[in-house]
Request: fold
Amino acid sequence: MTHNFRAFATAACLAISMSSAWSQGHEATIRKALSERIPQIPKIEEITPTPLAGIYELRLSNNEIYYSDATGNYLIQGSLIDTKSKRNLTEERESKLSAIDFNTLPLKDAITLVHGNGKRKLAVFEDPNCGYCKRFERDLAKVDNVTVYLFLMPVLGPNSVEKSRNIWCAKDPATAWKDLMTRDIPAATAQCNTAAIDRNLDFGRKYKITGTPTLIAQDGSRVPGAINTTQIEKLLADASK
Reply:
């Protein structure tokens, strides 16, 4: 019995070792094939097996997800969907990769707006000239009991930079922001140190925040684009679970 158990354990260890080597061989093959055939592809940060036999997930340096066969002969762009559980595995993976630890947000560089008791928390990156941001702000105004950390991120041109400066340098930046976004009343010309806005832009580049509005929930999940009141409430509820 002991002899048989040892033989079984040895065989199992050998199988695991061979499997690991086989996987590493696939990874090397995929990297070599793609670097030679598609040299412009962003750096491949990670290659991992997917639930689909023979298909590997490629995580690129820009956090995009692609898929490849074991030889690197075929590159797949699109969503991998588990039809049994009705889950979009690609979407779930991208959401995880794009998450930002809420505790790492430089809140000193944000304008703080408190609705009701402010118990829930939400961070938003917005441009004062962004039409979608204005629509989002109208919906956000209907959400109660939340503290909103607004990061000015002027990405739509020089006029956005000017408006952001006037809002940041206003005596009451929160009111100046709300007046502009919900009542179309621009802030008066003002001057002050706007290094915080520059840091917001640097933060956006670092974390690949490429559009406005971009929402960061307290659990780190990120939502690009304007969402309505019902969706905001769901985002806040999910983040507090």
Summary: The domain at 20-98 is CATH 3.10.450.70 (Nuclear Transport Factor 2; Chain: A,). Residues 4 and 197 are 69 Å apart (CA to CA). The longest strand covers residues 120-126.
